[in-house]
Amino acid sequence: MAFFKIEYHSKLLRMERQVNVIYPDAFEIDDNQVNDRDIPVLYLLHGSGGNENSFQKRTDIERLLRHTNLIVVMPSTDLAWYTDTAYDLPYFRSIAEELPQVLQRFFPNMTKNREKTFIAGVSMGGYGAYKIALSTNHFSHAAAFSGALKLNHPDLLSKEREAYWSGIFGGVSEEDLRPHLLTRLAAKSDKQTEFFAWCGYEDFLYPANEEAVADLRKEGLLIDYRTSHGSHDWYYWNQQLEAVLEWLPIDYVKEERLS
Is the full-model pTM beyond 0.85? Predict the structure, then answer.
């Protein structure tokens, strides 16, 4: 496979941005998988404190996809929660709208079809994956590992960082958060996206995930919700990354099958 580190100018953010891309190598893929005209794409979103390098550094993503015809896009939202922030930086639109257009010029063989367009993320990135999928209706599948799926849960937004949260969402009151809640976005979505969620029993976000999944199912979302022992850690997210690759409607080929 090929690994690209791309720096481009974001007109929306008015700054230089970085994105990493894994591109499949036809020489490592079975002939019946090779299709250079409509390659599926998976956007992987980092969590709080991460960046575009997080998945490459912390997971086995390159090994896992060695024999699979899938483009993987790893952008960065800094600490902006994949949100058009109250301090006037449109991070949401820069990733949900602008970035796919930028990448299409670099990789014209990347699919434009919703059925082959996927998104997933960890923690803050899990929230971002659900948010982008629900807001755009451009993704057929979306996944979250230890996702921050319920912003108004007491385990998530701390009063000690109220200035930070206010910069992102405009405040921490129910009224401030309401436009950013996934349940509100789900109510307006077309309900055509399939969702995956995993959270470990020992994860501090486990209670919030239990409530969030129940609430989102009430809004009509189809969610494959899985739980097991595990904490808020890349060790467990790496395991779930492979589970998601098996869940997606792609011809995922495990490396050991070709030994």
Answer: yes
